[in-house]
Specification:
Pfam families: Inhibitor_I9, Peptidase_S8. Helix 5 runs parallel beside helix 8, helix 6 runs parallel beside helix 7 and helix 8 packs across helix 9. The chain is of the alpha/beta class. It is globular and about 65 Å long.
């Protein structure tokens, strides 16, 4: 340990007022102001608890005259292969952290702008998507879903996002509250945005789901309808990965990450570490109609999905390029909404496309003994319909398929 690192500053420590901690926790949920907010990862041999205790001894509750300053660790992260924390730190503290040999990476916290696709005119074939992923040929006049009933139960989807209306009738009591990373310790995960409930319905609702009997676990990663904060998304992701590993669900589970943004070293590192422990992660390519040369999280282990319309043409809003692993239906998708126990609605986006693939991963894991996350990804891509979706540069990408033989 390098406990001498901050020794020269200890004489300046003041007593920690409770109000300072309260202010930090309150400001942590403010997506409008990310000033002095950072995410830090540690090298693996470092003792996280000792490191954070030492950092806190010189940061939390520091004052400057009569002005209370929010500074210190707010969130801590730990899972197999990954350690870190997030908090409020002044430039002088960050400069010292950069010299600390225990530190692996430091990055400013950031807010990801969740760009929604433009509104589209109604389609005549709303409800087409399950037919599209279960037939090699497009069924012009049919929404038939061809699937193996044995694949419908016994699996777990961790749905990161805005929460889930777990009382929706379509979930038949299979949805539960897992964790709320927006308000730490608060299990009230109301989905006021609706995106989380819609995505959960695509994965596992009775009528609209790819796997109609799976368990759905709500992991609230953001609340604002247009913004997600990386430190909160990372907190939600690590809880989901740890819960899946501790519950021995890696061979029957998936993490659905329906948000994307600029590169985050910490999130990429977490996804890669979870992958090595068997955790399958699906994320979305984004809705900006631009080429992505690398995956949104820069993680080579996440399965990144972009969107098509009902004719397997790339959706006009969908990102494309070698950062995309595969395509799935993502326009005019009917699914559950949180307004009531029976409410449904239509949404479009690469998150909707990714939800279909998250469902397919559970489908394949239930039917086959897939050894780990790598084997799952290989099998998923092997089953896909190769070269179906043409991109603007002329290259073709695979389209999701459940291998029904139809």
């Amino acid at each position: 340990m390098h406990l001498f690192w901050f020794a020269s500053t200890l004489c300046a420590i003041l007593a920690e007022p409770i109000s300072a901690v309260d202010k930090c926790l309150s400001n942590d949920s403010d997506v409008r102001n990310l000033t002095d907010r950072y995410v830090v990862t540690l090298k693996q041999k470092v003792n996280l608890t000792e490191h954070i205790l030492h950092i806190e001894s010189v940061t939390i509750g520091r004052t400057q005259g009569d002005n209370l300053r929010c500074e210190g660790v707010v969130r801590r992260y730990e899972m197999p292969g990954f350690k870190g924390y997030a908090g409020f730190f002044s430039k002088s503290i960050i400069d010292r952290l950069k010299e600390n040999p225990e530190i692996d990476t430091i990055e400013p916290d950031q807010a990801w702008n969740m760009v929604l696709p433009p509104r589209e005119p109604p389609r005549h074939r709303a409800g087409y998507s399950l037919s599209l992923i279960s037939h090699r040929r497009i069924m012009i006049n049919s929404n038939e879903y061809s699937y193996d009933p044995q694949a419908m139960t016994g699996t777990y989807a961790y749905v990161l996002g805005t929460g889930i209306n777990i009382r929706h009738a379509e979930f038949e009591g299979r949805a539960s509250l897992g964790y709320n990373a927006v308000n730490i310790g608060d299990q009230v995960s109301l989905d006021v945005n609706g995106e989380g409930t819609h995505i959960a319905g695509i994965i596992g609702s009775r009528t609209y789901g790819v796997v109609k009997g799976c368990h759905l676990i709500a992991v609230k990663a953001y609340h604002h309808p247009h913004w997600a904060v990386v430190s909160q998304v990372l907190d939600a992701y690590i809880w989901a990965a740890n819960n899946m590993i501790d519950s021995r669900r890696t061979q029957k589970g998936v993490i659905m990450l329906p948000v994307t943004g600029r590169f985050s070293k910490a999130l990429s590192k977490a996804i890669n570490s979870a992958f090595r422990d068997g955790v399958s992660t699906v994320d979305c390519a984004g809705n900006k109609n631009k080429e992505i040369s690398a995956r949104p999280g820069e993680s080579s282990y996440a399965i990144t999905v972009s969107a098509t319309d009902e004719s397997r043409r790339r959706a006009q809003f969908a990102n494309w390029g070698r950062g995309v692993n595969m395509y799935a239906p993502g326009t005019w998708i009917v699914s559950t909404t949180p307004r009531s126990k029976h409410a449904t609605g239509v949404r479009s986006g690469t998150a909707q496309a990714a939800a279909h693939v998250a469902g397919l991963i559970l489908y394949f894991k239930r039917l086959h003994t897939l050894p780990d996350a790598h084997g799952t990804k290989v099998y998923l891509l092997r089953q896909a319909l190769d070269g179906v979706v043409q991109e603007p540069d002329g290259k073709r990408r695979p389209f999701a398929y459940n291998g029904s033989g139809r």
